[in-house]
Fold:
Amino acid sequence: MALRTLSAKNAAALDEELMSAGAFSIDQLMELAGLSVSQAVFKLQPISKGNRILVACGPGNNGGDGLVAARHLFHYGYLPTVYYPKQSKNDLYQRLKKQLEDLKVPFTDDFHCALKQSDHIVDAIFGFSFSGEVREPFSKVIEALRDAQVPVLAVDAPSSWNIEDGPPDSGPGKGFMPGALISLTAPKPLVKWFKGRHFLGGRFLGPELAMKYELDVPEYQGLDQIVEVPVEDSKL
Amino acid sequence: MALRTLSAKNAAALDEELMSAGAFSIDQLMELAGLSVSQAVFKLQPISKGNRILVACGPGNNGGDGLVAARHLFHYGYLPTVYYPKQSKNDLYQRLKKQLEDLKVPFTDDFHCALKQSDHIVDAIFGFSFSGEVREPFSKVIEALRDAQVPVLAVDAPSSWNIEDGPPDSGPGKGFMPGALISLTAPKPLVKWFKGRHFLGGRFLGPELAMKYELDVPEYQGLDQIVEVPVEDSKL
Structure:
């Protein structure tokens, strides 16, 4: 059975509803989202196979999830490095950054150099609110992700993919197919074109909201904040 | 080797520092604290042994940790019931309550009745800022916890215990020895008198702050947000 997907428009509406009627703060939701991302990295990249994780963060919420994930990865024993070239002045992101600085997690300005010293990459550049063109510095970064020799986990969407229509026909993301994807709260329509391992995260969606947005709450196991979705289940 | 303890005064100072210089929000810290509590329940009370968890919440932060734990327990498949007789008007607690209401987690006014229908209790009444006398309705509740036939997990402190001096010589908490305790961030001096299973939670303390407050960061395993501390390690 395929998991139902959530359009970009409905993903924004659900986030909004979680934070208004649902009474969640963005701090809470981002903490849980980033925790999910960190757990997917833990499954994909055991520390014994290489503990250097490069987390590429975009300017918005997707980047914020990456910042939270990097902090949890540090506590698990990884050596995260963060690439965060377009830093928001938003208080929350500034605080998430400070939390990493206090742990001495390095921030890098040179993605290509950092890439060569990494065992695994987290693509937290663009999420479900992405549309339009990729601009610098991210177009070069996405090209590097596309050509990377180490595994990439994309958060919510492979960056540069259209949320509804999947991989772009041109531009830096043409041919970019990360090895793994973690969908937050629910898969977006782009999963139809995705060919790697697929995880779902965000174990805070209640039955009522799931019903309202016509989503499936998958069977998480034990204390896991993520669940791996069999490939056939993530197709439309 | 005994884990070093954190006095009530230093616990307050550390919390304050995490939220000022450390740039954490209380939403974040409480989410992670409550998540730790829920993981300790999961270890102590497998769902197959009885999934009815009564969470007794006090008016302050300890109660807030309980509210977060109840939400995570719901998502794990437990049936939490919340006793929360002195509800703060504070926005955060109101929101945590609303999140539970949206999941249809029941709130009860009758602790004694709820106790009879529970398999496990979480004592989130008073934490490290407790001092002085226990007042109603909590004195009767603590007497009931003391006499309970089902296991009790205390959050940060067995409620009514003095943070520095341990179990009280008189009053409702005299003789109250819960079967398990989860210390958040670091054990408080009262652990010297504690005889049950002891967990530590709060996997967000970095090496610098641990050094500043002369605390130990124990070896958490895998993705665990808690670690069980051998009994000899929690003695002074």
Notes: The mean pLDDT of chain B is 95. The interface with chain A takes residues 22-25, 27-28, 31-32, 38-39, 42, 71, 75-76, 92, 94-96, 98-99, 102-103, 203-204, 206-209, 220, 222-223 of chain B (CB under 8 Å). Residues 27-216 of chain B form a domain with the Rossmann fold fold (CATH 3.40.50.10260). The two ends of chain B are 9 Å apart (CA to CA).
